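ok so for the tutorial part 2 we go from a plain amino acid sequence to predicted structure tokens. step 1 is just haveing the sequence, like this:
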Amino acid sequence: MRRAQAGFGLIELLIASLLFTVGVSGLLAGQAVAWRNSLESAQVARATALARDILARMESNPEALAVYTQEGVEPDGLPQLPPHAATACHSPLEDGPCAADALAEYDLAAWQALLEDGGERSAAGEPLAGLPEPNVCIAVQASRLTVAIAWRGAGARVAQAESTCGAGRGRYGVDDRQRRVVALQTWVPREQ
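step 2 — the prediction. this is what the tokens look like for a chain of 192 residues:
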């Protein structure tokens, strides 16, 4: 009489290993997609918060809209501001309230630092929380104020953003497929 075989044979072991490998590969691919989606939503949240921040700064200082929007300047992101702009309005040596234009320069310099590095840096000085390759477009038409922030997303997309901010500059992959944009609008009374 033959005894019944106990345990696994080589074929069963190979099939079990193959199934385990396929399952682990699927799990890792799912984790990569979840990580990318989490990164994308964090970037959208950061861009939205930054757009709201600069809009609030502009709404509180409507006399200096020309400084914020850089009217008459080619819209290629924010201007390079002098290094003293960041401290000009909040220096303990300053007498009296800040002028509207100086406050706008201060706001732009402080806001640009948040845009580029999120106010967080590693021990080596590398930015931790900024948006990758940001581009900002601030426009005013009549009393409508628009702030659009473009940046490089984690992966390519087929659908393009409605805003043209940052488009066609070759910074956001082939056909701007990695370009992400958040655009917010508000209304501010303009002086006549």
